[in-house]
Amino acid sequence: MNCQNCNKNTATIHLTEITNGKRQEKHLCESCAQNDGITVSAQIPLNDLLNNLLAAQPKDQNVFNATSASCPKCNITIDDINEQSLLGCPEDYDVFSESLNKIIDKYQDGGKVHCGKVPQNECDKTTQESELENLKKALEEAVEQERYEDAARLRDEISKIQ
Amino acid sequence: MSIDDIATKVSKWFQDSGQSCEIIISSRIRLARNLSNHLFTTHCSNREKEIIVSKLREAILKTSIGSISEYVDISSASQLQKELLIERHLISTHLCKGQGPRAAIISKDEVFTAMLNEEDHLRMQAILPGLQLKECWELINRIDTEIEKQVSFAFDQHLGYLTACPTNVGTGIRVSLMLHLPALKMTNQIEKLLNATKEMKLAVRGLFGEGTDALGDFFQISNQITLGIKEEQIIEKLAENLIPKIVEYELVARDHLLKHQNNLLEDKVYRAKGILENARLISSKEALFLLSNLRLGINLGKIKDVAISTINELFMLTQPAHLQKNAGMSLSPSERDELRAKIIRNKLNMRKP
Question: Of A66 and B326, which is predicted with more confidence?
């Protein structure tokens, strides 16, 4: 069947209108139907449609919140991480800690604090730090209690470590 | 060792030994580490990648495993050499496809491999046959400690070892087992297993890791959680709780098949044997599938004139890169199918008059 209007193209739009009890059929091709305002262009690509729908979702659906901040060391932004799911440098864990903690929390099933192996040099660092803390406390105490000989010895020990 | 020598032999991790080896093919543990004061590999310039490779190379070659290991420059290796190493589970496709300076350090027995400039600066693995996770951990932990004495790894008191992908942070450990589960597959229980492992936050992958299919009823099960749990606990959970259960399910399913569907089972096994002994053209996928069925037949005592070690050898040597390396030339897929069928035929018919 050809279009009633232009008589050239095949009619693909079939419309039945009932006005005042009177039945009227229209057979139009796509372009004539569009001109009549009966249909709108069907040429919206599916992808665009989907993207529009997705874009309409609230932003915080995303695990990473978009921010414009970038890491001073590797220049990566949270958007880059979002896209590649890889970080640029170890400092990123600090710079983007808020966003990253969310994803780590989600992925690690609530695991938050490392309790496994610690490298030897980190061990030394930690023990050294706590040792230093203890000595400083002891020094304060010694000064308070006016034990100056002890204080002098502690001061020497602290400066040795530092 | 050179890459050219290993192509004719079966890797140690694929030799038939170790606990529950009829179901557990291999145990593997990998650690992800990064040097502090460097960008992660994907963001490095080639110059920085070069520095990372040379720092780690020096440190690893000085460890107790260094003297029995070979350094392989992946950036200058041929495509065939790289594919060969992938087929032997020594390097990842990620390292193969990467760019710029990158390398692998492989121990002569192929139990230990270190990949330099993969997703992380250093990814090391220990792989052994059967259920030997504790032995893997002992080895890899020892080497890791030896390396740690020489270089400084990116580490945070709260987050542990810092990795390029936040999903590996903490211990940076991936513990995985390769399982052969043909009876669970035949009795349609794999879905059940997959759902159970998902609940336990474990990942199930195919024969060659991430993004690969479970070919020939081989499945890789590994931990996903790396933070907030000790390495030993992760290993224990898998080795002592979960894996024995899966092994038991598979054994029950095999028993069920023997008792109630013996004809179906025998048909599968003998059909596989018949095709393997007679085919003139066979793809690597079909070979894997049929060898898997034949392997089941041997384990259930149906087939007595073929050794498991023969099957393992065929699994490995009929893969595309192995075929071409051993043939000494590059072959088209149809030439490979012909050669593959010939090797399998010869091996299986060897003891017949």
Answer: B326
Q: How many domains does chain B have?
A: 2
Is B151 within a domain?
A: yes
Give the residue-averaged pLDDT of B118-125. 97
B20 Rama class: left (phi>0) / alpha (psi -120 to 50) / beta:
left
- Residue B132 covered by a domain: yes
Shared domain check, B161 and B307: no
Contacts of B39 in chain A (CB under 8 A): 73-74, 88-89
Please count the helices (runs of H) and the strands (runs of E) in chain B. Answer: 14, 10
- Residues whose CB is less than 8 angstroms from the CB of residue B309 and which lie 6 or more positions away in sequence, other chains included: B10, B15, B16
- Are B79 and B17 in the same domain? yes
pLDDT band at A138 (very low <50, low <70, confident <90, very high): confident
pLDDT of residue A105: 87
Q: What is the ipTM of this complex?
A: 0.83
CB–CB of B85/B31 below 8 Å?
A: no
B268-282 pLDDT, tens per residue? 999 999 999 999 999
Is residue B268 located within the same domain as residue B154? no
Any CB–CB contact under 8 A between A123 and chain B? no
CB contact under 8 A, A117 and B171: yes
Same domain as B22, residue B136:
yes
- Domain range for B307 is 262-348
Residue B195 lies in a domain: no
| Residues B276, B216 share a domain | no
- CB-based contact A36:A51 (threshold 8 Å): no
**pLDDT of B226:** 94
Search chain B and give the residue with CA nearest A90.
B162
The answer to whether A114 contacts B165, with C-beta atoms less than 8 Å apart, is: no
**CA–CA separation, A78 vs A68, rounded Å?**
7
- pLDDT given for residue B4 in this prediction: 66
pTM for this one?
Answer: 0.78
Q: Which residue has the tokens 């038991």?
A: B248
User: What sign results for the dihedral spanned by CA atoms B296, B302, B308, B310?
Assistant: negative
